[in-house]
Q: What sequence folds into this?
């Protein structure tokens, strides 16, 4: 083999290694709070906001804190060094990205990013499909709610 071919193969191999090494941790799936605590690394945790527990925003420190239950039912406080996300109160699910840290004697989840999954405005009020006789018999025709201007 020619030296330029070997150099090209080596370059592609090194580039591939760097890509896999750089993005490998970020391509992981969802974890629970317990998994995140055991691994000690950054994690994505899916759960729901515990509405009964207090949520606070401290504008002097720019810190939003709330309590979240993950998919296994484990409940932990979450601290986010930014304002509360828009539509947080409407969220069906919350995804936090960060890691477990010690806060005195307690462990809290320090979130770097928060994503909220809100109910779809298109499913709200229930659109329904109804089988009607139109130009083509048996074709489903979508009937929408009467709220035309509520987009």
A:
């Amino acid at each position: 083999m020619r030296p330029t071919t070997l150099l090209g193969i080596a370059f592609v191999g090194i580039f591939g290694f760097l890509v896999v090494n750089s993005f490998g941790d970020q391509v992981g799936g969802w974890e629970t709070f317990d998994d995140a605590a055991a691994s000690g690394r950054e994690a994505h945790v899916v759960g729901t906001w515990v509405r009964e527990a207090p949520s606070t925003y401290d504008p002097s420190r720019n810190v939003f804190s709330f309590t979240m239950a993950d998919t296994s039912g484990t409940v932990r406080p979450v601290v986010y060094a930014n304002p509360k996300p828009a539509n947080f109160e409407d969220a069906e699910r919350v995804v936090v990205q960060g890691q477990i840290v010690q806060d005195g004697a307690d462990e809290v989840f320090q979130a770097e990013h928060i994503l909220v999954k809100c109910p779809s405005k298109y499913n709200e009020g229930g659109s329904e499909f109804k089988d009607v006789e139109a130009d083509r018999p048996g074709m489903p025709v979508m009937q929408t709610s009467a709220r035309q201007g509520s987009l």
Helices lie at 3-23, 33-39. Confidence is low (pLDDT under 50) at residues 126-151.
